[in-house]
Amino acid sequence: MIEGRQTAAYDGDLVVFLIGMRVNKLRALRRWLPVARAMGPMLRELSADPDSGLLGFRTFPGLRSVTMVQYWESAEKLQAFANDAQRTHRPAWVEFYKQSYQGSAVGIWHETFVVPAGHTETIYGNMPLLGLGKVAGVVPVNRRGATAAERLAR
Length: 154
Known about the structure:
The chain is an alpha+beta fold.
């Protein structure tokens, strides 16, 4: 835990990528389990490659769903990974779509937000490193402005 009020030290362009899956039919284990297992190899591959563009991620499991927040250097690097047939994402995506036409046991979704430099605001009070603060480290809040409005106006 880092005491006091902190803010993320990150100040470059950023892509926030939300991705998730939802189990629609619990009994259809053989349909949704491969989808659930596909993310681990992708994250290991990306984490082992410092040039991949993935800055960090955090997972939020639910009862029937999982949501992940990912931080990327650029939309171009995210799309390059997603579309490269030699990397883990593309084959998993193709397999999902083959399986998805055989029923609706599992759903997937994603949302992409491109955030220009200077358009993020973070605050961490008496917290361990997480989110964008874990990606780039933190600095005392007053170095970037005492209020959210001041931190966004830089």
